[in-house]
Please model this.
Amino acid sequence: MSNLPLSGLVVLEFSQYLSGPSAGLRLADLGARVIKIERPNGGDAGRKLSIKNLWVGDDSLLFHTINRNKESFTADLKNEADLATVQKLIAKADILTHNFRPGIMEKIGLGYGQVQQINPRIIYGEISGYGKTGPWKHKPGQDLLLQSVTGLAYTTGNAGHAPVPFGLSIADTLCGAQLVQGILAALIRRQKTDKGALIEISLMESLLDFQFELLTTYYNSGLALKRSEVSNGNPLLGAPYGIYATKDGFVAIAMMDINVLANVIDCNALEVYSQEHTFINRDEIKSLLSNHLKQQTSAYWLSKLHEHDLWAMEVLDWNMMTSNLAYKTLQMEQEVNIGNNKKMVTTRCPIRINGKSIVTDKAAPLLGQHNEQVYTDFIKQ
Model:
């Protein structure tokens, strides 16, 4: 897709693993030229972070999913000559991102104040685990750890059961997306004022923001989080909100009037409850509903619920989802060329611009693959 919104902008990515690189991925999708600045020996640590031992050449499949459409430039930032070269790149860049622990970039000589002297117009985005101050500032900013300390793991699973983390790196993904939001806002401001900006975000702040509904309720009521004992879906919502087993699978049932539900599915046991009971007697109602729904198949219940425009859907695994026409219509898959006439399939950017999807077949870079090109474009001028 030509004429992408960020075409012509140069991003220097000093990030590794997931949070920072996920921000770079979206900036690249939107047209920016994203250059990863990597250590000569090893590069981004995410190159060796394998999931299910899946590899593309010498790098992990995970690295390829989050670093496609980028370039790689190697530099030893402890070497004066290499650091001087990177400083020349910074002078011509628009955006710089990193997700090192607080103080690391300053120690190298590439903190915001130092970089601003080289390039006053640069947008400098940094991700930390817990913020730059406070007793946890040097703790490891790892996704599972952040889900745990922010209380997020206690929002999932049923009451009386162990805390349940999300089945994906939600902190990294949210934080990367929010860093992009801050960068885009700073770019608009720079267009108006010609001034750069420091954009700071932490994994912890992202997960606290993610829980704004729950935390606002807690701040104003002082009441602790209370999960359902049965089919917990959202600790703030009453019955029937949750996921229920059927005779052959599972269905998700969202908010609806309990009396209407009782009538539609012929559940006489629910008829004694009114809408005001749905939170007070949440577990009681959910237990009755759970026993009732096990008597018939998912398709049977969904046909009744959908006939009356009640909010319910089948719970699908990936095989079931990808074979569904609704999924196929979105065309979320794209092929990426990974060399030697081989391709890998991954998701595309979810954004459409003027009705067109954003796709690219450019793979993640080999370590140092673009050294010569970057030298030609930025250093030898």
Summary: The CA atoms of residues 238 and 279 lie 4 Å apart.
